[in-house]
Amino acid sequence: MSAPLAGSAAADLQPQLDPTHLAVVRYPADWQPPAVVGEWFFAMIRGEHEVTVVASEALLDDPAWADRAEQVDRAWRRVTFPGPLPWELVGFLADVAGRLAAAQIPFTSMSGFTTDHVLVRAAQADLAVAVLSGQSPPPQRPGTNP
Questions:
Q1: What pLDDT, on a 0 to 100 scale, did the predictor assign at position 123?
Q2: Which among 49, 73, 115, 140 counts the fewest CB atoms within 10 Å?
């Protein structure tokens, strides 16, 4: 399986926008989450030098989550593509990246076992959903970013 070919009509990728405003948070490498998160989207990546968490901004109202945060980047929204997306799918994220780049929308991606997600800035979330649904990006004026 592969993503649509360049130059073909943009297919609707059926993006689903989560209403939750998210934060991307960097913690020290030895940090452990203070509790299990059950109500909101939550992702954690442990690396050699840091722990990165993507979670609801509301979670950071709790000092147990906020106190050891080294860096907090708020105002993200999650766009999910319904799955399951097969492991053999080639070029799906390249298609997503191309559409978002054409609309001047920066993003980061993450994947679950059967579902892909992208994080976009909250201010650009509606535009991201529109272009990922197959709409053409609006024309850009020089020196602007939607």
A1: 97
A2: 49
Contacts of 47 (CB under 8 A, 6+ apart): 29
Residue 37, domain member (yes or no): yes
Distance between CA atoms of residues 60 and 83, nearest Å: 30
- Give CA–CA dist 110/58, Å, rounded: 21
> Where residue 106 sits, what CATH number does that domain have?
3.30.2130.10
pLDDT at 140: 73
Answer whether residue 2 is part of any domain: no
Domain, as residue range, for 29: 22-74
Give the helix/strand (H/E) hosting 110: strand 107-111
* DSSP H helical ranges for 19-109: 63-66, 92-102
Q: Which residue, 74, 92, 116, sits at the end of a domain?
A: 74
Res. 38 pLDDT band, cuts 50 70 90: confident
